[in-house]
Design a protein that fits this description.
By secondary structure, the protein is an alpha+beta fold. The protein has 4 helices and 9 strands, in the order ααβββββββββαα.
Length: 243
């Protein structure tokens, strides 16, 4: 009986050790993901640019610049900091591009990357979306160009008065002014760094845009701009026009 009791204790110790090992592995795996998300990838580049934009003039792209025969122009001046499929939030992939100006809110113009029809819903303080009936790279497909953070920290819109809330399907030309870059996050006490978020959103097949918050509903912007903008391939490289 004592032998059987001893065996039970030994089995329990092994079980406890096994569970402890599993928990330790889970902890270190989560810690590795946390470190990679918040201190790895492109985060150091973006933080350094926000703090010292004058030291990184070579990272700037001019507004309306264009790579070779790529169909889109760059919608704003600045450093393309975060890329499509970047990771700076736990278990989330970035849906588009974040272009940082290194300036204050309201100082950097934002332009239409491509011609189409602009909509601004009545409750959109900092956001517009442009319907492009014919995808220049996929004939017969419709796409949507989503842009946000066009308001200051308090939510005062920086969108051009030509596009008031409730604007629906207003024709817009490539390179036409949309507004100014801002830092609105939805929470006045916690503004984001001044930047433009830009993403290419898929059509739902019925003439409406899909939910931009899901990366699976967006397209890789690389071929549209003629540079590597997929974070999984670009790594920490500064985006450049492809040769």
């Amino acid at each position: 009986m004592l032998f059987a009791f001893g065996c039970k204790i030994s089995a329990m110790k092994k079980l406890v050790l096994s569970l402890g090992l599993i928990l330790a592995l889970i902890f270190f795996a989560l810690a590795a993901v946390f470190i990679k998300t918040f201190w790895g990838g492109r985060n150091p580049l973006v933080m350094d640019f926000i703090l010292h934009p004058d030291k990184h003039a070579e990272w700037f792209f001019p507004a309306k610049s264009k790579c070779a025969d790529a169909p889109f122009i760059l919608p704003a001046e600045g450093f393309i900091g975060y890329l499509w499929h970047d990771s700076f939030k736990l278990f989330e992939a970035h849906q588009g591009l974040d272009i940082f100006s290194g300036k204050q809110a309201g100082q950097s113009p934002v332009y239409a990357a491509y011609a189409g029809f602009l909509t601004r819903q009545t409750d959109w303080k900092s956001t517009v979306i442009i319907r492009v009936p014919e995808d220049p790279l996929r004939p017969g497909q419709q796409i949507w160009l989503y842009m946000t953070h066009l308001a200051d920290a308090q939510g005062n819109s920086l969108i051009d008065p030509e596009f008031p809330p409730g604007t629906y399907e207003k024709p817009i030309l490539q390179g036409q002014l949309i507004g100014m870059m801002g830092n609105y996050s939805g929470n006045p006490s916690a503004p984001v760094g001044v930047h433009l978020h830009f993403s290419i959103v898929k059509d739902d097949g019925h003439g409406k845009y899909l939910n931009e918050l899901k990366v699976s509903n967006t397209l890789n912007p690389s071929p549209y701009f003629g540079m590597e903008l997929d974070a999984r391939k670009a790594g920490k490289a500064i985006p450049l026009c492809k040769p």
